[in-house]
Amino acid sequence: MLRLDKHLCDSGAGTRSQVKLLLKAGRVTVDGRVCKDGGSRINPDTQQVALDGAVLGGRRRTVVMMNKPAGYVTATRDDDQATVMDLLPPQMKHLELKPIGRLDKATEGLLLLTNDGELLHRVISPKKEVPKVYYARHEGRAAEEDVEAFAGGLVLGDGTVCLPALLEPMGEGQSLITVREGKYHQVRRMMASRGLPVTYLERWKEGSLTLGDLPRGQVRELTEEEIQSLDRGESCPDSGNTVNLLE
Ligand code: URA
Q1: What is the topology classification, in CATH, of domain 63-246?
Q2: In this structure, how many other beta carbons lie within 10 angstroms of the beta carbon of residue 35?
Q3: Is pLDDT of 219 > 60?
Q4: How far is the centre of ligand 1, averaged over its atoms, from the C-alpha of 101 (Å)?
């Protein structure tokens, strides 16, 4: 159940103050009856809300950031396993969000979801090359030759050719990796190909977006400004900064 005024805003009927005026003017109906109380609770899945007689879809363009915990698969549904959709709060369930790209079940960190199909394809398009920064714990210590191999574009065991990527060793068993594509198990396979098998993986950044203080397992909506930065395909500030995040 949602507040009627929130549902109206979410559906693009107007800002909160505009919605207040629309309600007051009797221009909003719920199941055909005028409703002036913005605080009344409605179920957008079963009730019909209309403005000036036109039924509202209740599905505005939304992009959310999730701090994904391990143990959830990146899928909209799965018969056996918990999916990232299970982490969405009830008021986001009707928005028909879909993950933008994917994180492995064991991978944690930044995952975007949207109901804007065009944005989804633009962000995951290999042409766009949106940089993604991962923190990895791994066996061994990454060396200068590994950094050079990443920079030159790795060729994986099965012949898959990777775009040049940035490897920033952080001492024994820890590195930051920046990739500009999203191949299957990409970071794990790249690291394994250098004899540095990953034991823990977390995505810290996508484009210019970082997790900030979003707690693990929580989601928040992106601001319009953040959505526009994604639209413009803005990249991360100098990835060298990311090392400071550990300090
Ligand atoms: N690369 C991986 O190997 N796994 C992820 O979840 C993301 C990138």
Answers
A1: Pseudouridine synthase (3.30.2350)
A2: 15
A3: yes
A4: 10
Per residue in 94-104, pLDDT (tens digit) is 778 999 999 99
Neighbours of 107 (CB within 10 A): 23
Residue 3 has what pLDDT? 93
User: Residues 5-53: pLDDT tens digits?
Assistant: 988 887 777 788 989 999 999 999 998 899 999 999 998 777 888 888 8
> Which residue CA neighbors atom 7 of ligand 1 most closely?
103
40-53 pLDDT per residue, tens: 999 877 788 888 88
pLDDT of residue 242: 39
Residue 104 appears among annotated catalytic residues: yes
The region, left, alpha or beta by phi > 0 then psi within -120 to 50, assigned to residue 14 is left
Q: Is pTM, for the whole model, over 0.85?
A: no
Which amino acid makes up residue 127?
K
Q: Which CATH superfamily does the domain covering 2-55 fall into? A: RNA-binding S4 domain (3.10.290.10)
Mutation to probe ligand 1, out of 74, 188, 203 (largest number of atoms < 8 A from CB): 188
* Atom of ligand 1 lying closest to residue 188 CA: 3
Cα distances (Å, whole numbers) of residue 1 to 46, 89, 91, 94: 10, 12, 7, 11
